[in-house]
Design a protein that fits this description.
heterodimer, A: Ammonium transporter fold, B: mainly alpha, 9 helices, 2 strands, disordered N terminus
Chain lengths: 335, 231
């Protein structure tokens, strides 16, 4: 980020120990257990895909960004988060494309950290999803490849070529199975993460723990995930009561990318509202869109689009929920 | 219409411009798509393959040249108050000719272009040229102007179509470029890819212009320094 022309108000000033790098590197640290578990389930493929996305994001920031912005760690977060939203068998060159797109188009084109409208990692994923729909929805089954060392797909496909069909077991994601085949997945599998899915959308419990740490340190606004979970639980629970064909609240909460999205993507400091009331509305909007897309949409999973759509509304939420100055009377807007 | 009138003064060249300039300005310096950002609807909508782009470009070229010729010929008899309606009528005539022509000659591409052939009627470039140029200039200059602008539109569409077809399908004019193992970037034949491609093409044009301006300025400064030294 270039030095902003910041107007410093009158003293007294209170020094806070937290700086942008402190927060960002804490987020990186809290993501590492999730990456480790992904590696446990999906073998070396998980590490390769995450590393490729992260390396691409960091390299793009280094080449195209302002000098000295690597140290704030935000590019590493974007890369790690992008990697965690990808399937394990994805060719590495596609992960690189996603990382480059997320940082270059999603962040630097807007002016760098703090200026971007959309979450860069999700933008990178959205680009990959629209570009390579087949590769992006080929989900390997965790721990079914025989040995841990086996690759879960054609990770080393030559750049710009399609991945070869590899002898790895793949299956539909729990959400896809539910939506298109009406087959539920056991809740325990969803909570522990022994299901198919993207690298980081398997173990809901671990993501809750890691995100909870960040919420305790106040590095993310707990109101956003709380609002998302509450909205999804109420809507999904209500619909399930009306018609048992719809999946129940717990299934909706622990399947797909909802945990990762709610904890790490929707709470992105740059692309979420600054006011607490705005955060409640933001979360409710994400939750509503997730349920609507998952149940009535053509896609099985809607967390990515839900967050991106709500990202676009953040400036309005900020203006709308701006707190009144104490003692000031509301002024009629000039017509 | 407001958009048209504000462009009108900008797009008119002075009376004593050489004929070569009438023809050439539309290709690059005043390119209707890349510089004036007119006619973006077909530029975004039908450029998902080279063949579609070329056919769309040729149809628009035909309509533009035809209407400019006719409007310029009859310009003295069109009352000022109803000139826009008259222009549209003339343009619509040529669009109907183009539509039947495409339907007979290239029925597959005609189907792929969908409603966008009929929508040439409301293409800002065409009405803009009648209003800004053909309605107030002699026939020869008007036709040259229309040929230049039509060619500029075709050029822009060709650039867009090439990028999108090569990346999005791995082919050029349906001829495979990279062999069967190429993974197409599907997004480039979808609507978002149109917006991305246009943005990058405009970025490249702006970057090129900026460099040209910087170079011209540097040259001017050099000359000024030289003059000072000589003096």
């Amino acid at each position: 980020m270039s030095a902003p022309s910041l107007l410093v108000s009158a003293s007294p000033h209170l020094g806070a120990g937290d700086s942008t790098p402190t927060i960002m590197w804490n987020v990186v640290a809290s993501l590492l257990p999730i990456v480790a578990v992904a590696a446990w389930f999906f073998g070396p493929s998980a590490l390769l895909v995450t590393a490729a996305a992260t390396a691409a994001a960091v390299a793009t920031e280094r080449v195209l960004g302002h000098r000295g912005t690597l140290g704030d760690g935000s590019a590493v977060i974007t890369g790690l988060l992008l990697g965690l939203t990808l399937p394990a068998g994805l060719p590495l060159w596609m992960a690189v494309v996603g990382g480059v797109f997320g940082i270059a188009i999603g962040k630097l084109l807007f002016g760098g950290l703090g200026q971007n409208v959309f979450n860069p990692a999700l933008l990178g994923r959205a680009f990959l999803q629209a570009s390579f729909p087949v590769a992006m929805t080929t989900w390997p089954v965790p721990a079914a490849a025989g040995t841990w060392w086996a690759l879960r797909g054609d990770n080393f496909a030559f750049p710009f070529t399609s991945p070869r069909v590899v002898d790895a077991l793949t299956s539909a994601s729990p959400l896809g199975r539910m939506k298109f085949e009406q087959q539920p997945t056991a809740l325990l599998d969803l909570v522990l993460g022994t299901t198919t899915g993207s690298l980081g959308e398997t173990s809901g419990l671990l993501i809750l723990l890691c995100g909870g740490y960040l919420a305790l340190r106040n590095y993310l606004n707990w109101r956003i995930p709380a609002s998302i979970f509450a909205t999804v639980a109420v809507l999904a629970g209500g619909l399930h009561q009306l018609d048992p064909r719809y999946p129940g609240a717990l299934f909706m909460l622990f399947s797909g990318g909802l945990m990762l999205g709610a904890m790490y993507m929707a709470t992105d400091l740059v692309t979420s509202p600054v006011t607490n009331r705005g955060c409640w509305v933001f979360g409710a909007g994400v939750g509503l869109l997730v349920v609507v897309i998952r149940i009535w949409g053509g896609l099985a999973e809607g967390v990515m689009y839900a967050i991106l759509i709500m990202n676009a509304l953040v400036p309005y939420l900020n203006r709308w929920t701006q707190p009144r100055v104490f003692g000031a009377r509301p002024v009629e807007p000039a017509t | 219409m407001a958009e048209l009138s504000c462009h009108a003064s900008m797009m008119t060249t002075s009376k004593d411009a050489p004929p070569r300039e009438d023809l050439a300005k539309g290709l690059w310096r005043q390119n209707p798509v890349l510089v004036h950002l007119l006619g973006l609807c077909p530029t975004l909508a039908v450029t998902n393959s080279v063949a579609n782009s070329v056919v769309m470009g040729v149809a628009t070229f035909f309509v533009l040249v035809g209407s400019s010729f006719l409007v310029s010929t009859v310009r003295r008899w069109i009352p000022n108050e109803i000139r826009i309606a008259s222009y549209i009528l003339i343009i619509a005539t040529f669009v109907t000719v183009a539509e039947f022509g495409l339907q007979a000659l290239v029925p597959d591409i005609y189907k792929a272009l969908g409603p966008f052939v009929a929508l040439i009627v409301v293409n800002c470039i065409i009405l803009g040229r009648q209003e800004a140029f053909a309605g107030r200039n002699p026939v020869g200059r008007s036709v040259l102007d229309a040929v230049g602008m039509g060619a500029g539109f075709m050029l822009a569409l060709l650039i867009m179509g090439s990028v999108r077809e090569v990346l999005g399908s791995g082919t050029f004019l349906s001829v495979s470029l990279f062999g069967p193992r190429y993974e197409p970037w599907v997004i480039f034949v979808l609507p978002p890819g149109g917006f991305f491609t246009l943005a990058f093409v405009l970025l490249a044009v702006a970057w090129h212009k900026q460099r040209q301006t910087a170079r011209a300025r540097a040259r001017a400064t050099d000359e000024a320094v030289l003059v000072e030294r000589v003096a």
